[in-house]
Structure to design on (264 residues):
């Protein structure tokens, strides 16, 4: 586990910002246990719309400076519901990005998830890491995650570098089970709405390749599991400016797969 010292971050004049990563609400395909992937662009079910509204109410007082969304309908509908409840989003535009699309499951799309899990088991792999014929590999999805992260870093850096503190923010608010855990007093905070399998790959990349610091007592099995519909993960990132590029200098996870708003 890598820790980033306050002294180093201050000397680099870091910008601290938050990312709340959200999975879309339930679709009829989710309800029926069918795999969607990329080829099936289904809308939210009635329950999914209720989940998205609940997520919006839960996050209504959390300030966002940017909104990035998969260009698939189920993700856009979820983001719209969250933004509708949030006054800080009233002047923001939703940036739809195909880099945030769900993983492609090739010939398995439209099939029952249980059948695909059995295919994965027969191949000696786990779901959703398993790659059916014509689907995306774990490495291909990871490349999309890396490309999106780099693109987002450069955009947020260009837009908000002036918003950093005198020496960056060295500490963030404590985790108290509240909607704004980790981002109270953090002026830059991006909402990123994507998909279940994509989020699995993204979280694994942040933890295993970027050495993201984890909350005390974290269970990696839970961390790498499939997020529930409208489940929320939050990360705090530090970036520094080197020449004319913005580079990540530290990252920690505040919480993973929080679904309190759905249970209420």
């Amino acid at each position: 586990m890598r820790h980033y010292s306050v002294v180093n971050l201050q000397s680099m004049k870091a910008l601290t910002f938050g990312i709340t990563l959200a999975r879309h609400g339930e679709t009829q395909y989710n309800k029926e246990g069918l795999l969607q992937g990329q080829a099936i662009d289904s809308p939210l079910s009635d329950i999914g719309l209720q989940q998205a509204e609940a997520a919006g109410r839960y996050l209504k007082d959390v300030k966002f400076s940017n909104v990035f969304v998969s260009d698939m309908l189920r993700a856009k509908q979820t983001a719209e519901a969250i933004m509708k409840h949030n006054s800080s989003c009233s002047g923001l535009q939703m940036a739809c990005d195909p880099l945030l699309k769900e993983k492609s499951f090739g010939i398995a799309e439209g099939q029952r998830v249980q059948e695909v899990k059995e295919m994965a088991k027969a191949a000696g792999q786990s779901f959703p890491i398993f790659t059916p014929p014509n689907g995306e590999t774990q490495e291909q999805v990871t490349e999309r995650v890396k490309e999106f992260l780099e693109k987002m870093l450069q955009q947020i850096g260009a837009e908000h570098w002036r918003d950093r503190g005198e020496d960056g923010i060295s500490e963030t608010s404590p985790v108290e089970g509240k909607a704004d855990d980790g981002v109270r007093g953090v002026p830059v905070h991006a909402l990123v709405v994507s998909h279940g399998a994509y989020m699995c790959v993204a979280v694994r990349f942040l933890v295993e390749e970027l050495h993201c610091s984890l909350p005390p007592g974290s269970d990696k099995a839970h961390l790498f599991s499939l997020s529930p519909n409208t489940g929320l993960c939050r990360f705090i990132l530090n970036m520094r400016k080197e020449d004319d590029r913005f580079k990540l200098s530290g990252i920690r996870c505040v919480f993973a797969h929080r679904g309190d708003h759905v249970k209420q």
User: Anything to note?
Assistant: The chain is about 35% helix and 20% strand. The radius of gyration is 18 Å. The first strand starts at residue 15 and ends at 23. The chain has a mean pLDDT of 90.
